[in-house]
Amino acid sequence: RAKKDGHGSYRFFEAEMDERMQARRHLEIDLRRALALREFVLVYQPQVNLRTNTVTGFEALLRWQCPTRGAVSPLDFIPLAEETGVIIPIGEWVLRTACREAAKWSPAHIVAVNVSAVQFGNPNLVSTIISALAESGLDPRRLELEITESVMLDARGTAHAVLQVLRTMGVRVALDDFGTGYSSLGYLRSFPFDKIKIDQSFVRGTSNDPVGAAIVRAIAELGQSLGMATVAEGVETADQLARVASDGCTEVQGYYFSRPMAPDQIESYLSTRNRTNLL
Ligand code: C2E
Ligand code: MG
Ligand code: MG
Ligand code: MG
Questions:
Q1: Nearest-atom index, ligand 1, CA of 148
Q2: So what's the ipTM on this one?
């Protein structure tokens, strides 16, 4: 009897696995189709320099407008896109689109693009970036790549070499989600990042979160010593803004200033902001 039950639950497990595999297959196919049908768009979120109170640039964030699933968050499809490799063509589209759209902005503003570790495994990454820059006419110094520590984890150091090449071209490099990985400090030593983005989890603690505040202060100080800008991510309230400013962060990104916006909203956002002086 026990044996029969065991068998039954094994079957159940198998069916469930099957269903999940099916769902993943569907999602993968849908992602490829989405690219072909132009269902992806980029939205842009401003980064504000706290000393000058000006917008330094915008981070490009991917959105999938799926006719059947609705608006799908990148958190729900980037991991599978990475596992299946679909992130390569999607990432290419993101790079080309971000460069093309940013080339229309005032030359004062940079565009930050998230690039995943899997993309660094693709030998064509550098040539994709070169042609995205050439096609758009965007100054390489206005392109910033946001990478996470996982990019630096490859044993052969290819990502490191690729970053060096891009750096020589003038492309900027930011370390994203800082503080959430394993050996962040070592990476700071191995590559001269332009910017450290302090993860939201440290920024969004309440006013009685002395540990979070201590971490933000320590990273800001580290950034200052190393000549790297420090961006507090996920600032939602005036209170958080005041705290990260006094903790020494040089820039801020978050809903407090703006949610990510469609490209055609950028111009009016900037002109309204200049008139009203939001800080
Ligand atoms: P990320 O690069 O750390 O981007 C910041 C995320 O925080 C974005 O989520 C942004 O919308 C959100 N955010 C910004 N300010 C606030 C705030 O004040 N409060 C809260 N609650 N959230 C805030 P999003 O757009 O959902 O993107 C999630 C992640 O997906 C990104 O994290 C990034 O890792 C990845 N991603 C997004 N676009 C791309 C892309 O084009 N390529 C790749 N490879 N990954 C991407
Ligand atoms: Mg990012
Ligand atoms: Mg981040
Ligand atoms: Mg993230």
A1: 34
A2: 0.98
